[in-house]
Amino acid sequence: MKPINVGLLGIGTVGGGTYTVLKRNAEEITRRAGRPIAISVVAARNIERIREITAGGCRATVDPFAVVADPDVDIVIELIGGYDLARELVLEAIANGKHVVTANKALLAKHGNEIFAAAQKKGVMVAFEAAVAGGIPIIKALREGLTANRIEWIAGIINGTTNFILSEMRDKGLSFAAVLKEAQRLGYAEADPTFDVEGVDAAHKLSIMSAIAFGNSMNFEQAHIEGISQLDAADIRYAEQLGYRIKLLGITKRTPEGVELRVHPTLIPAKRLIANVEGAMNAVLVKGDAVGATLYYGKGAGAEPTASAVIADLVDVTRTHTADPEHRVPHLAFQPDAMVDLAILPIAEVVTSYYLRLRVEDRAGVLADVTRLLAANGISIDAMIQREPDEGEEQTDIIMLTHKTREKNIDLAIVGIEALPAVKGRIIRLRLEELL
């Protein structure tokens, strides 16, 4: 049977892994797809890199636009990353009637609404399993496996760099800065780690999962994003004493007021499975009304784990590319005319529990003043640690866990507490999720 011809844009880590796995497992993949899948042309700036990976097994070019215009190419794999050039190439491929497979979460989070609308109009597919959580098949689970469910919430460790850093901080008691240097040395963190450690990468992925879960449009610009660069090792220790682990979570929830879309360091009970995901691994917890909580765990990055997801998309497209577009799985799980425009809840309106750390003078009446201000804002305390001051010290830490409250209430309480003469410096506030 005539092979499906694929044009590959970019042959970096994932592109190289995709070519290698596709060639190594060609027989198995053909049996599953129903016909051979062949990468016939590769575009990259480094021609020598293409020849090194492919050993001359396909055409090589430095011009990606030649690939998306090639009449012999059926599917375009976009692995160059970034926003602008990738958007232009993907839209041109769609306009030329080609199906697209991409691992570019930033592109979809920012331009997904436009890209999916163009693909729908042209009757082609855009597949993106590799854009979220590497080799974990979370997109297929949300779009197909859980389709009977009303998804209630998703909470995910979806950035391996930050999870590695937090695991090392907890295990070794080191500062964020020290562990970041080690992560960069080991290749877990980029030379410029901003997208990872400040939560932007996780927010890209969360925006995609949220749209699929709730049938909403992409809303990356409205996501609340906090990273881990300001996290203190002391808070990781205190959380541990209280029975919690701190993870950078991407959280999206459906509420009567709107959809929560937030990325931030979060306390999770240590007994939860997701709290015990360590190192550079990823995990996504999905709560459906019928199935309950389901957990998806695995490698969120790397050449072959991500290639696994890219090739799974290639097989899906190969199986269904001749099908009537109305009979394919919709890009965002819901039929295009059934998508809704749900409001994204401002972070001030989110209801959750909180961890507070206060540095205070060690004298009578301080705790009473703090609890009075919390009560005045409708906030009750669930647990507390009050450290004995070190010898010769006149200040100490108070750590509190609150019951659930609206974020604007905790903000007002913090303003009042920080104004107390006995409270020294800024109050550390972290959110807490039980994930039940």
Any overview of this molecule?
The protein is an alpha/beta fold and 436 residues long. The protein has 3 domains: 4-135 and 303-335, NAD(P)-binding Rossmann-like Domain (Rossmann fold); 138-299, Dihydrodipicolinate Reductase, domain 2; 350-431, 2-Layer Sandwich (Alpha-Beta Plaits), CATH 3.30.70. It is built from 15 helices and 17 strands. The chain has helices at 13-24, 26-33, 47-54, 64-69, 84-95, 105-122, 138-145, 160-172, 176-186, 194-197, 200-214, 233-241, 303-320, 366-376, 407-418, and strands at residues 4-9, 37-43, 59-61, 75-78, 99-102, 126-127, 151-157, 224-225, 244-255, 258-269, 281-288, 292-299, 351-361, 381-386, 395-402, 405-406, 428-432. Helix 6 (105-122) packs parallel to helix 11 and helix 14 (366-376) runs antiparallel to helix 15 (407-418). The chain is elongated. The mean pLDDT is 96.
Task: Describe, in short, the structure shown.
The chain is an alpha/beta fold and 436 residues long.
Which structural class do you get from the secondary structure elements? Answer: alpha/beta
Helix content: 25-40%
End-to-end span in angstroms? 50 Å
Count of discrete structural domains: 3
